[in-house]
Amino acid sequence: MASQSRKGGVSLPDRRNPKSGGGGAASIISRISQSEIVSRGRQAACDGAYVAKKLLKSTGKAAWIAGTTFLVLVVPLIIEMDREQQLNDLELQQATLLGAPPK
Prior knowledge:
Elements: H1 24-33, H2 36-98
């Protein structure tokens, strides 16, 4: 059966069992990935992501509150102040046309 040709042209070597004595690199990687430093780093990264998510959520809520408050309270005030200024300008223009001294 070994004389049969395979498609692809390249045959890969058989994989070794990482638990057996022949897999030195795999056992080093598994020991490193299971070490306490790596697990603490992973936990710190998860905690940082959790805090960042909460911070973004609360910042978004604060921005929503500030934006809607501005639209409800400040924009009408600005519009009313502009109307008042236009009315004062119109009264001043009429007074100068009629010849009355400005106030």
